[in-house]
């Protein structure tokens, strides 16, 4: 048997085979941001069931901010990946579909018992359907460039932030009791409809990367003012942002229809002028 399996010494210069291909750090960083946002969403569920709604809302707002920058950081670092896109969609479903609906159920909709829970299910399912449609539309190569400036239906972070309007109002001192539960239910179902609808909502994704020089200083001042207002009057600002966003949807629809008509007119064939020789009948023989 010793002849069949002779002893040998391994070659120290032989390169070791790698089981897995190394992943660049620029791909990992955006996914870490997404996971931090997911942790915030899950923590918001715990805080809401402990009755600590204010920090729960803050956690969702921060998760929405992180959701807005993780994709931009991935594109800036050239670290986009299919894995990151799928992870982002799953995190959005939890943060903006499951968490706000459970928070509203714990806060108010539990007063309606089964009917309130059905509204929670409808909102969460509408969110996952909206995210699935968004992922499919990203792969459409024939989509016109101007349509990329509009979402089809209400985007996920906006759906979450607007759904918590009853919480904002309660933080401002308004009495949100059991009598307001049916109103909150209708409001939540209306947002679910907006998410799965084809109503265009302005996104602003194709705004130019360069800003005119005369607008630089005003933008700095406005940004600082908005940050100061949000830090000192968070619930007033979130309420105002929610109302203004909902009021802007009809304007988005009008702008979308206008651009759609312009595209249709530009694609229509232009009639060619007819020469006199072609318009006149041939002479009789």
UniProtKB/TrEMBL annotation:
The keyword Lipid metabolism applies. One of its GO terms (cellular component) is membrane. Keywords: Lipid biosynthesis, Lipid metabolism, Membrane, Phospholipid biosynthesis, Phospholipid metabolism, Transferase, Transmembrane, Transmembrane helix. It is found in: Membrane. It comes from the Bacteria. Residues 270-285 have a biased composition (Pro residues). Residues 264-285 are annotated as: Disordered. Pfam families: CDP-OH_P_tran_2 (PF08009), CDP-OH_P_transf (PF01066). It is a multi-pass membrane protein. InterPro entries: CDP-alcohol_PTase-I, CDP-OH_P_trans, CDP-OH_P_trans_C, CDP-OH_PTrfase_TM_dom, CDP_ALCOHOL_P_TRANSF_CS. GO terms for molecular function: phosphotransferase activity, for other substituted phosphate groups. The chain crosses the membrane at residues 27-47, 53-69, 114-132, 153-174, 180-203, 215-231, 237-254. Residues 214-250 form the CDP-alcohol phosphatidyltransferase C-terminal domain. GO terms for biological process: phospholipid biosynthetic process. Belongs to the CDP-alcohol phosphatidyltransferase class-I family. This is CDP-diacylglycerol---serine O-phosphatidyltransferase. It comes from Microvirga guangxiensis.
